[in-house]
Design a protein that fits this description.
With 236 residues, this protein is mostly helical. It has eleven helices and two strands, in the order H-H-H-H-H-H-H-H-H-E-E-H-H. A hairpin with a 6-residue loop joins strand 1 and strand 2.
């Protein structure tokens, strides 16, 4: 299981004891929405400002690491914020929060695409594991067009250890979901609105999913789900 989703789970779990924000009024303006989601937009602005104050990145590896830090900061802020929003207000606030995060995602994707090397990916040997993982996160948080572009490049890199098998499986499953197909590896865990329960949804040939996961060096599905189920989502 990727360490970054689990970090988000820990943040959500920690905030569940802090209480919820007061409910929104019956009629809410764009200004009211902007004020309410300020914890997220301020967190994004803060990471941008913090990185802008740094000396220029020495190389593409350092640039990628910084992009990954911004990606994680935005999503951590979103998870913490949404866990404190009253359930009845989540439909109103979910979209503007996502719009703020997606604006940062687009900046990250543009920066990453300008750095793609001729061989097609940011390998661990050349760029370092932190930069390679950051590149994966940025593409994973992009769109089906980029997933289709990079998956064929990533697949042979699993066998050589240049990317983690989990990274490949997560992107593969995300593309399957976008195509409205069952997951193949069961890596994408979500919370259906109104249930407050983690689920992978449908998995193709689930009886053999652990065999496919093991081939990529991924823990059994039950172990993955045990970590999620120990931390109720608290925001759906």
């Amino acid at each position: 299981m990727s360490p970054f989703p689990f970090l988000a789970l820990l943040l959500v779990s920690a905030t569940q004891t802090t209480g919820q924000a007061p409910p929104l009024p019956a009629v809410i303006s764009e200004q009211d929405v902007a004020i309410r989601i300020a914890p997220v937009t301020n967190a994004i602005a803060a990471v941008r400002a913090r990185q802008a104050a740094l000396a220029p990145a020495a190389n593409d590896s350092e640039r990628l690491v910084r992009l990954g830090e911004a990606d994680r900061a935005a999503r951590s802020a979103m998870q913490v914020f949404m866990s404190g929003v009253p359930r009845e207000d989540r439909p109103t606030l979910r979209r503007p929060v996502w719009d703020a995060v997606k604006a940062l995602d687009q900046e990250n994707q543009t920066a990453l695409l300008a750095m793609v090397p001729p061989e097609g990916w940011f390998t661990r040997t050349r760029y370092g594991p932190d930069a390679s993982t950051a590149a994966f996160l940025i593409v994973q948080h992009s769109n089906p067009e980029l997933w289709r572009r990079f998956l064929p490049v990533l697949e042979p890199l699993v066998a050589t250890g240049e990317i983690r098998g989990l990274d490949y499986a997560e992107m593969f499953d995300r593309l399957r979901q976008s195509d409205e197909k069952p997951q193949y590896y069961g890596t994408q865990v979500g919370c259906r609105y109104g249930t407050n329960v983690w689920s992978t949804g449908e998995i193709e040939d689930e009886a053999h999913v652990d065999e496919r996961r093991a081939a990529l060096g991924i823990e059994p599905l039950a172990e993955q789900m045990a970590q999620y189920l120990a931390n109720p989502p608290g925001f759906c």
